[in-house]
Amino acid sequence: MKRILLLGGVTEALAIARTLGPEHIYSLAGVGRVPSDLACQVRVGGYGGAEGLAQFIRDEGVDLLLDATHPYAAQISQNAATAAQLTGIPCWALRRPAWQPQAGDDWRDVNGWAELIEALKPFRRPLFTLGREPLQHLHEIPPEQFWTLRALDVYPGNGRCEVIGARGPFLIDDERALFERRQIDVLISKNSGSTATEPKLEVARERGVPVLVLRRPILPGVDREFLTLEETFAALATTAL
Ligand code: NAP
Fold first, then answer.
1. DSSP designation for 137
2. pTM assigned to the model
3. pLDDT tens across 154-180, in order?
């Protein structure tokens, strides 16, 4: 019987975890909700880098590492690939395809914070959907801008920034109302490829609002890579679990 260590962080990972029996382990960083209704074991928190993860794999007799973390969680994906090499077990990964721009989209790729701030200069009312990272930059907001930040939880803003706490999936009508109410003139987004957060892109398209897209990080090579949940389930079904 094989023992799987499933590294979670996206909705699809939870869907996989729901199918795993009690010998398997679902691993979460601890930043989001921790489900309490799973048959498999749930482990919360980091391992102390690739070496720590490798040690856990040895201690727990894990046979297969399945990386179903967020496409921007580059550190844990690198740790997973390294730990699998160190322990000689296979590393599989579920990697959602990126969104592709459609007719009417005005997407502008940015590499990191410095480029983002530069690209933001012509705008006045940006909507950030990058999680908590922009909170470190509230002191940099130029006087002519008012920022709206959406993160999983509410945090204090300041006179030129309001933070909204909200978790997807987001509905198109709610996104329309948000853009309208706050007169958003530019959207800042990762390219997560998630259907749960896609409606904001549709609203940006409808309103002719440009989107500054934070470029995806480069992820390590793995033994098998899946683009969809279906492909992942099919591969798991052919593995002696
Ligand atoms: P990261 O930079 O790649 O990872 C930071 C550290 O968090 C890792 O080195 C590891 O600590 C720990 N970690 C991450 N995922 C873990 C997991 N599934 N199980 C146990 N430890 C984990 O990741 P991040 O961008 O901070 O994201 C943290 C988590 O949130 C990830 O699981 C990711 O899938 C999820 N998430 C991220 C985003 C995003 O935009 N980045 C969006 C939605 C969800 P040690 O080195 O100590 O092992």
1. G
2. 0.94
3. 999 999 999 999 999 999 999 999 999
